[in-house]
């Protein structure tokens, strides 16, 4: 007869395996909200579908092309009646190709693509300008029903202003036609002029003492009001 403890452990094995299977299925079914923002799936002959099918490791799910880690490499939101890409659009900042054609998009899209540094192909309605303008892309091609923005340029390399960032900062691309200045190690603050690490302890110390003082003042005020009543 096997010891009781061993038998109990063996009985738990199938349950543990089943639990792991359910969890893995749950993770597999979970999709970023942007992928299901629009009903339907990617059309077989769309540029996003063709891009995704060229690489066996990539899969089409809903409106997205995903790699094995679930990272969005392609997004097809064409013909979704969108006036703007929506609040979930930043979830696709890792995308290499995005299709937004056949949507009544309104306004300037330049600030919509903050952080989309990997984007190389963007398909838009014909009346919507490529974000950053023609200087932000290698090629802008107009077709009958859409336009294509191809080859995002590194705006830091193409700018004619060598002093676009302060002396202790460096230019970093932040999307089509966008850049940001990042302070060098050991510098921070306005125009990266302050040297040394940011004084976190002093900052939180002052913040904590101020919060405590205000709390004590409010508590005392409430107690006086309570006594007066």
UniProtKB/TrEMBL annotation:
Tell me one GO molecular function of this protein. xenobiotic transmembrane transporter activity
Per UniProt, the keywords (alphabetical) are: Disulfide bond, EGF-like domain, Membrane, Signal, Transmembrane, Transmembrane helix
Write out the transmembrane intervals. 200-220
Signal sequence: where? 1-30
One GO term of the biological process aspect: positive regulation of bone mineralization
Which cellular components does GO assign to this protein? lysosomal membrane; nuclear envelope; perinuclear region of cytoplasm
**InterPro entries given in the database record:** ATRAID, EGF
Which cysteine-cysteine pairs are annotated as disulfide bonds in the entry?
183-192
**Which residues are in the EGF-like domain?**
152-193
Name of this chain's protein = All-trans retinoic acid induced differentiation factor
Species assigned in the record: Moschus moschiferus
């Amino acid at each position: 007869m096997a010891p009781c403890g061993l038998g109990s452990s063996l009985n738990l094995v199938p349950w543990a395996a089943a639990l792991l299977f359910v969890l893995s299925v749950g993770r597999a079914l979970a999709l970023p909200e942007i992928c299901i923002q629009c009903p339907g799936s990617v059309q077989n002959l769309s540029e996003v579908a063709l891009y995704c099918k060229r690489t066996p490791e990539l899969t089409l799910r809903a409106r997205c092309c995903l790699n094995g880690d679930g990272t969005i490499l392609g997004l097809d939101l064409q013909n979704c009646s969108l006036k703007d890409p929506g609040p979930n659009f930043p979830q696709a900042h890792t995308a290499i190709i995005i299709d937004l054609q056949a949507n009544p998009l309104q306004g300037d899209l330049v600030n919509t693509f903050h952080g989309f540094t990997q984007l190389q192909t963007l398909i838009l309605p014909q009346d919507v300008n490529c974000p950053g303008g023609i200087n932000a892309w290698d090629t802008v091609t107009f077709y009958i029903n859409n336009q294509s923005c191809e080859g995002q340029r590194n705006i830091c390399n193409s700018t004619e202003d060598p002093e676009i960032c302060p002396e202790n900062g460096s230019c970093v691309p932040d999307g089509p036609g966008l850049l940001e200045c990042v302070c060098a190690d050991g510098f921070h603050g306005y125009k990266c002029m302050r040297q040394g690490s940011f004084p976190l302890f002093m900052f939180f110390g002052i913040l904590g003492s101020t919060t405590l003082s205000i709390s004590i003042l409010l508590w005392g005020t409430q107690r006086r009001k309570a006594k007066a009543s």
